[in-house]
Amino acid sequence: MLDLGRKNVLIIHKSPNMKDITDLIEYGVNVIVLGREMADNDNLLGIKVDPHNHAELISTVDKLKKSISIDAVIPIWEATVIESAIVSDYLKLKGNSKDAVIKARNKFLLASCLDSNNISTAKSYLIRCIEEAEAVLDSELSYPCIMKLPYSANSQSVVLINNHSELVRAFYQTIKMHRSTDNPYIMSFKSDKDYKNAVLLQEFIEGVELNIDLAYSNNHFELLGVFEKAPMKGPYFAEYRSTYPINLSQEQLTECIGIAEAAVKSLGASIGCAHVEVKYGKRGPTIIELSLRPGGAYTMHAIELISGIKVISVLTRLLLDGTLYINDNYCKSACLYGGIVLEKSGVISQISNIDIFKNIPQIVDYNILFKNGDNVQALPEGSKIHLAHYIMSGNDIHELLERDAEIRSAIKYTIQ
């Protein structure tokens, strides 16, 4: 049963991380998850609903608010940040506007917004036929370049293109992804005629890539965490390792944080958390991606290990009463989180040495995402692209990198 003396918060998600749920319950709120049925416990209610059917979603919210008050909507999943904004606006609760969230989710709108505000980002062109792509490459861009869906997420559809034959192959491959009926990251845009049959062609930016997590309210920003991504060479860009500390100077880091804050402001985002991907190269910091929610996978856990900051609690307090309070309590000097990337699609027939996680003392947590017999889909079409996730902490990043190499050399899998 829900504790009626507590505040009630909604999370719109089909499979939320249970650590986030537990942290929220420990923070002292009731959690209602809209998106799937979940076993009730003292403070958790799960309601099955298609979050991308907006009429069904609002109807469910209407029924729910007849029995309990709803005090905040907490956006933590990229696939439902738009729906979170819709519901918070419908209930007149604190949160970002639907317009701001759509500009962050739609990578063409994001690039246009950043460019109009003189914020460095990759040159981006909306393409609807191969002839348009050829024309852009004749006059505006050069190889190598990037192609992806306008509402790409989790590296899905992102491909590096080096020549004309790769351009043609990538274009038709990416256009085909619009027809997916089970991809959660495109469902919010199924009725968007302007972008339904288009791809995004972008300048390829080289440099050191950072994940920067921020909390903000009315143009006041607090830094939550910064991690450096391991280099990804293409043709696809599955993230496989992020580390702290990073390999930039304090001056360079300050530049990166500054451009991340400017990017969030340019969208008209008013309150919440942001996960910003920035590359630092020859022309300084450049915005690559921006999401109006906390970093996914183990990002929030990593921030907590390094600084003691519980991001989900910071975000919840912010959306409940408008208070932006960071209790930065230094814990660890080094952290690494990563994943074992699925390199091909098919059925997993064998996984070896997956128990290695139990034998590495620096491992804080891990999650095996697939098992023998599971059908998996790799990039560029796939959205669940890792066999396992894991996170380590310690006092020496070089030691963690050595353990990471051990894990990657030990774990083997066969896909047929």
TrEMBL record:
GO molecular-function term, one example from the UniProt record: ATP binding
Keywords: ATP-binding, Ligase, Nucleotide-binding
Classification via PANTHER family: ATP-GRASP ENZYME FSQD, FUMIPYRROLE BIOSYNTHESIS PROTEIN C
InterPro entries noted in UniProt: ATP-dep_AA_Ligase, ATP-grasp, ATP_grasp_subdomain_1
Biological source species: Ruminiclostridium herbifermentans
Protein's name according to its UniProt entry: ATP-grasp domain-containing protein
A Pfam cross-reference name: ATP-grasp_4
